Amino acid sequence: MSNFIPIPTPRSGSPHDAVRASRVDAASSASPKALVNRNILAAALEQYKPSTNQPFRTEQLRILLLENVSQGAATQLREAGFHVDHFAKAWSEEELLQGIGQYHAIGIRSKTKLTSKVIKAASKLLVVGCFCIGTNQVDLGAAAESGICVFNSPYANSRSVAELVISQVIALSRQYVDRSNELKQGTWNKVSSGCWEVRGKTLGIVGYGHIGSQLSVLAEAMGMSVLYYDVLPIMPLGQARQVESLEQLLSSSDFVTLHVPELPETKNMIGAKELACMRKGAYLLNNARGTVVQLEALADALNSKHLAGAAVDVYPSEPKGNGANLFTGAELGPFADKLRQCPNLILTPHIGGSTEEAQRMIGIEVGTALFKYLSYGTSINAVQFPEVDLRIPAKPKEGENRQARILHVHKDEPGVLKEINTILSDENTGHFNVSKQYSDSRDGIAYLMADVTDVSEHDIGSIFDRISSTKHNILTRILH
Ligand SMILES: NC(=O)c1ccc[n+]([C@@H]2O[C@H](COP(=O)([O-])OP(=O)(O)OC[C@H]3O[C@@H](n4cnc5c(N)ncnc54)[C@H](O)[C@@H]3O)[C@@H](O)[C@H]2O)c1
Fold first, then answer.
1. Contact of 53 with 479, CB cutoff 8 Å
2. Domains of the chain
3. Which of 23, 117, 292, 404, CA to CA, is 20 to 30 A from 343?
4. Site residues for ligand 1, CB cut-off 6 Å
5. Distance 259 CA to ligand 1 centre (A)
């Protein structure tokens, strides 16, 4: 995996010094020319390196990674100087209640449940990384109220979904999934009737977001024309064209593919009426969310031959794990048995985003988010937290005091900013220069980031004590 984070200067005395020392030894056995080049590069990097932010009054930061989340992220976070404990399994609530109190960050997938009880026990926790798309496993409100920022990776698998859709378009058009199933049963059925090339056909995309727009480019590369419908006016890619209504898209497309989020407005968006609006012999593909299509109506449209085929990857209810005999009416509802009988219908078990590449991207994205939040306080793209970022402070010059970054999570009440700025400009504690400041609020929680220049260790202590004892304080950190 490529490096996804800048590696800060080593923290002296950390357990990872041994790892770094062995790297230095390896470097010193290189050729003299290589060494000179490396030294020049190192000097250049040293000159432009941002200051290494270290937490004030906090021991070495400890990260708990569960559910075998990205090995690459674990390695990079260790190399960045954090203590990382990496476990293959999810932890039960009991295990979390016992162990979570010693960690500053946690990385999970969907099986570890961070309930409000667990969050209460997580006295040092600053940040949660969900190495997946969903965040239902975390009590997001309780986390925000405790000043804990949560990250996930909602778009790392967009390309994987778009590629699956392209494969489905061709598979439906050539009916080869049915041919393959027949052959596995011993039936040779070589037919060309009702089988088509996709070149020159029209792909209608509903929802032109991360996935829809990638798909648009891939489809055009195969010679298809692309129409799309979206509630927002969106700039087309290539020769694609936005249409004004869903009906217009349905009646003008040979293939209709759905890429909208699950919202009250998209629930049952495609039912009997919309299917009737589609061209006879057209195809429907749903890789978005299971609630968007009325599956019984889809089965009727396929059985009556109004539609020539369909692909479905997502369902209104889905099995909790893998196993035999789980996709049945008894387990999920009548739609499952009805769908299994339909001609030229490709059913897949919610695999749209399930690729090795998507998993790796999730590791990079969430690992980077954890690193940046712990090291610089950056909360951009957080799930439920105010989003704040500032340019990373420059390294102080020789003999200059450090710059400190104040990170203050507080209740969103009037007068807090004034109070903090009064502390920073108080003649008794030191009249500090605030070089940059940024604040955002969300659902009653606010987050202030401020860089203060030329501060001594003593100044930082006094700022920390005064800000963290203000009335609306939830959590204060200072990096310096
Ligand atoms: N099958 C899978 O494994 C898989 C994997 C990833 C994502 N998904 C699903 O795919 C869907 C799309 O994901 P994305 O990352 O492209 O989302 P996105 O947020 O980037 O794009 C969604 C688009 O839909 C548009 N939209 C919203 N409501 C609409 C409406 N009523 N009519 C028309 N357009 C509307 C939005 O304006 C936006 O442009 C989501 O439902 C997501 O959960 C499925």
1. yes
2. 1-157+356-385 (3.40.50.720), 159-347 (3.40.50.720), 395-480 (3.30.70.260)
3. 292
4. 155, 157-158, 161, 206-212, 229-232, 259-263, 265-266, 287-289, 313-314, 350, 352-353
5. 4
Calpha distance 66→2 (Å, rounded)? 22
Please state the atom number of ligand 1 nearest to the C-alpha of residue 164: 1
Give the helix/strand (H/E) hosting 151: strand 149-151
Q: How big is the chain, counted in residues?
A: 480
**Environment class of 360 (CB within 10 Å of its CB; exposed 0-12, middle 13-18, buried 19+):** middle
The rounded Å distance from CA 409 to ligand 1 centre is 32
The model's pTM: 0.80
Q: Which member of 197, 318, 357, 413 is catalytic?
A: 318
Residue with CA nearest ligand 1 atom 9: 288
Ligand 1, atom 2, residue with closest C-alpha: 352
- For the CA of 212, the nearest atom of ligand 1: 16
Q: In which residue are the tokens 């009997």 written?
A: 272
Sign of the Cα torsion 226, 227, 232, 238 reads positive
- 350 flagged as catalytic: yes
Residue 75 CA to its chain's centroid (Å): 19
DSSP E strand boundaries for 222-293 = 225-229, 241-242, 255-258, 282-286
Pocket test for ligand 1, best of 152, 228, 260 (most atoms within 8 A of CB): 260
Q: Is 239 helix (H, G, I), strand (E, B) or coil?
A: coil
The alpha carbon of 209 and the centre of ligand 1 are apart by a number of angstroms equal to 6
Residue type, 321: G
The pair of structure tokens assigned to 438 is 């940024």
Q: Which two tokens stand for residue 3?
A: 């490096």
Of all atoms in ligand 1, which is nearest to the CA of residue 313?
1
Give, for all 480 residues of the chain, the pLDDT tens digit: 333 443 333 333 332 222 222 222 333 333 443 333 444 434 433 443 444 566 665 568 999 999 999 899 999 999 999 999 999 999 999 999 999 999 999 999 989 999 999 999 999 999 999 999 989 999 999 999 999 999 999 999 999 999 999 999 999 999 999 999 999 999 999 999 999 999 999 999 999 999 999 999 999 999 999 999 999 999 999 999 999 999 999 999 999 999 999 999 999 999 999 999 999 999 999 999 999 999 999 999 999 999 999 999 999 999 988 999 999 999 999 999 999 999 999 999 999 999 999 999 999 999 999 999 999 999 999 999 999 999 987 777 777 777 899 999 999 999 999 999 999 987 776 788 999 999 999 999 999 999 998 888 888 999 999 999 999 999 999 998
CA distance to 106, 375, 420, per residue, from 409 (Å)? 19, 16, 12
289 part of the active site: yes
